[in-house]
User: Fold these one by one.
Assistant:
Number 1:
Amino acid sequence: MPAFGLGVFQSSKEDTGGAVKAAIEAGYGLIDTAAGYQNEAEVAMGIRESGIDRSEVFITTKLRTKDFGYDSAQRAFDASMASLGFDVVDLYLLHWPVPRNFENTLASWKVCEQLLAEGRVRAIGVSNFTPAHMARLIERSTVVPAVNQIELHPFFLQQDHREAHDRLGVITQAWSPIGGVQRYRGDGSEGRDPLQHPVIVELAKKYGKTPAQVVLRWQIDLGHSAIPKSINPQRIRENIDIFDFSLQPDEIAAISGLDTGQRGGGDPELVGTPEGK
Ligand SMILES: NC(=O)c1ccc[n+]([C@@H]2O[C@H](COP(=O)([O-])OP(=O)(O)OC[C@H]3O[C@@H](n4cnc5c(N)ncnc54)[C@H](OP(=O)(O)O)[C@@H]3O)[C@@H](O)[C@H]2O)c1
């Protein structure tokens, strides 16, 4: 799996194909979509329009919690494949755990294991699982998830998750890698945007890079996979232009030190409850 990719959450149907094409032209090798984003078909269109061979692009998509269950997960996977129009998905993720109905989560994981055995997906993983959810899943199944895609940016580091992943050999993939959720789910108050934090702004000046590039480089220097979203071709190119510099250990530590322990997005523990999503 390429470490660096394009996310397409909240990319409209109109914008997605162009963003994917721009990303591929800029050298991205990974596109992260989901059934819930309702743009799988447009992702596939962008890949086709780019002219690149399908095998050169790594495609991730995800199973919605509303499709969890043994039969419904199989139907949902078939629907994703029909939208994408490709023979195989590179990585298939359970989008969120449903802690209050973990049996259903496990039944969906069983489907993922079968899809892997049948060769319809090349790898399977999870998203938004806590270390406790991960342990429950592993205890009751055969395949250890290849990836856990979690909210992770300078203001929310999830150190316990990262350590658990390292112990288990699971790849940590950062969603909202430049802290986008802090803006689009935030109240607009000052200090919520990591890209405006003085530590990051100063490092950007030092390296002649933008704040987003510094944060994405920090992600890569920490060994994470990162999937920033943009529909803007200039920012799409900017975001991947991070492989000509690296941060010093004290600079990496300074950015990690901005962790507030406060998530910007939904709490996985609350999925399936009135307070959750
Ligand atoms: N598994 C999950 O539950 C989950 C949840 C959320 C996200 N994700 C995945 O992670 C991907 C990325 O996360 P995200 O969209 O939440 O946040 P993000 O990538 O951290 O931030 C995206 C936001 O930042 C803007 N942006 C992009 N590049 C920029 C730059 N260089 N400078 C300034 N602003 C920039 C984008 O606007 P423009 O488009 O206008 O450039 C967009 O508003 C998603 O697309 C999705 O694939 C997964």
Number 2:
Amino acid sequence: MPYQFSCTGGSCQFMIRSSSADEVRRLVRAHMRMTHGGRIDRVDIERGMERIEPA
Ligand SMILES: [Zn+2]
């Protein structure tokens, strides 16, 4: 089942979707570091990550 994460940082439109939860976590952390110059707590990643029902 795919996972999705939408960044909530201000007007940021970043959204990642992957079948791998680990990949989503990795890319979200990379995004936070490169785009927002900071980091995100693990709990905030878990909270923001949604499971997408297959069509
Ligand atoms: Zn962002």
Number 3:
Amino acid sequence: MQSNPSVVVYGAYGHTGGFVVSELQRRGWTPILSGRDAAKLDALATEYPELEMRPASVDDAPALDRALQGAAAVINCAGPFASTSGPVIEAALRARIPYLDVAAEIEANIDTFALYADPAREAGVVVVHAMAFYGGLGDLLATAAMGDWTSADEISIAYGLDSWLPTTGTLVAGQVSRQRRDGRRVVFGDGKISYVTGAAPVVEWNFPAPLGRQQAVSEFTMADTVTISRHIQVPEIRSYMTLAAVKDLTDPSQKAPTASDASGRSSQTFVVEVIARRGGEERRAVASGRDIYAFTAPLVVEALARVVGGQVKTPGVLTAGEAFDARDFLASLSPGHLSFDIR
Ligand SMILES: NC(=O)c1ccc[n+]([C@@H]2O[C@H](COP(=O)([O-])OP(=O)(O)OC[C@H]3O[C@@H](n4cnc5c(N)ncnc54)[C@H](OP(=O)(O)O)[C@@H]3O)[C@@H](O)[C@H]2O)c1
């Protein structure tokens, strides 16, 4: 790998984009800061006087082409991805460079696989989609838990968040998804996504210590359902989210996450437990860490390093579990960013 190759961060001035820029620098890459708002990019110049700013809006293909010129890859952190992933993927395909994103909008995730799998394969470009806390981590844990199983009867994913102070991007992505769902909820059963009405059931989930037994909303379907079902044969995927986090997310007076230390991370903690069941046998993977937004940065930057380093041989639109050796990938994030256990 050449020294300090440059990587475009689209949505660089967003909350998650900021963590990605810092992580890229920490690992010796040179971020190129991009996004649709030139003034917001300029405001970053005081923090990053040495970095190049390349404004581009998603409806301006020539500007996106200029933004990606000479870069080794692009990481898209600008959501709603229903609006941004198509144009930025198309620019990456024209530039013939890898594309990674942190998308967590179920319908947009499905569209991205459907629309860009063939064009990316034909262009010989690796697209790693939903390479984030939602969409990436659960998929890696499910893939690692499965081990040598090629199919399972059921996969359960339980998200144990002690709180969830959402960013504006999360709230807007949620609004976009809700509009598409017209008041319905997403579930995964009989091997496919479907929509149901009525309130999701609340159950008890026994998370590993220190969280322990918690009330959890079941059928809290997230992007991991889309990514896991892309490559693991499993008819039932059940998702659970701590009730406390759901209450935070839907509280209209809720504030955005704030830094609790010099790294910018909030004090939020997470534990994600994935259980794969086949017949009477269960395989389990558990991971814990801090701040789902900040954690997304080491996840996507590690993926970038592996893609640009040539470890992913198959072009196309891939999930984390498809693209990488899941156990090795999780191990690379531990101990600095993640604790995990596979049984
Ligand atoms: N999968 C996961 O676990 C995960 C983790 C973190 C983030 N995310 C997703 O990443 C996205 C960003 O989250 P965030 O926390 O960084 O939120 P944020 O701080 O509100 O940042 C949102 C970013 O998206 C940009 N943006 C919005 N609409 C755009 C458009 N049409 N064209 C170009 N840029 C646009 C914003 O630019 P302006 O300021 O110019 O509007 C801003 O840079 C959200 O969709 C969120 O759901 C997912």
